[in-house]
Amino acid sequence: MTRHIDVLDHGYVRLVDVMGSDLSVVNAARVSFAKESAEFDEQDERLIRFLAREGHTSPFRHAMATFEAKAPLMVARQWWKYVVGSDHTMESWNEASRRYVTMEPELYVPERWRNAPESRKQGSDGAIEDDELNSEATAILRRMIVAGVESYEALMAEGIAPEQARLCVPAYAMYTAWRWTASLQSVTHFLAQRLADDSQWEIQQYARAVYRLIEPEFPVSIRALVKEADAS
After folding, report:
1. Which among 29, 50, 104, 202 has most CB atoms closer than 10 A?
2. Rounded CA gap, 104 and 84, in Å?
3. CA 146 to CA 212: how far, in whole Å?
């Protein structure tokens, strides 16, 4: 079973741990009637679909998953909003810190740049077809990365604290790594929003990886809560 998927140029998502199953969801729901299923069957599948359809989501909080991810900071900070803004369950997020660990900076460089949208303030509007413009944008970013990393290393060599030297590195492109533990409901809430067409392309790639990793663990619940077409 796949538990690690590479994403973008230096990133990945890894499924670290899982607690529960589709059976955990139905048994959490049936405790109201002092009933419990020993094996998952068609009746349990119908119950999960009913819970999802009617918005009875608390039983999905009794299953948990832990992911490890490595992504550009611009993706990590979008993802982080699902922790600080979550009212679904107690979640946990532990991130690598350049205050304590001096890591070689890794930075994201897009393979293809995208057009700014004409009709809205955020998002993008398809890939730039002009190869010359695409190459120019990449060259500008690479020059900034080289200058930033060289400055970072120079300050470190002079004895400047890593927590301050890191200010030289282009922040949004810099990769960071973290572990995220969340309920099944929280995971599917993240998927429902970040698999959407109007979500930023980079975080869509991470959402697709999360879907591919979690779906085999909770196949009925995932398909009931997240449209399968969204993860294609």
Report:
1. 29
2. 29
3. 35
What 3-state DSSP class applies to 232? coil
| Contact indicator for 195, 231 with CB cutoff of 8 Å | yes
Residue 194 annotated to the active site: yes
Q: Which domains does the chain have, with CATH numbers?
A: 4-99+173-231 (3.30.1360.170)
> Active-site residue among 61, 166, 194, 208?
194
Helical H runs in 95-183?
Answer: 131-157, 162-165
Integer Cα distance of 114 and 180 in angstroms:
29
Residues 53, 223: Cα–Cα separation, whole Å: 11
Quick check: helix, strand or coil at residue 5? strand
- Tell me which amino acid residue 193 is: Q
Residue 90: DSSP 8-state? -
CA–CA distance, 22 with 107 (Å, rounded to integer): 38
Q: What is the pLDDT of residues 32-59, one digit of tens each?
A: 666 777 889 999 999 999 999 998 888 9
> Helix, strand or coil for residue 32?
helix
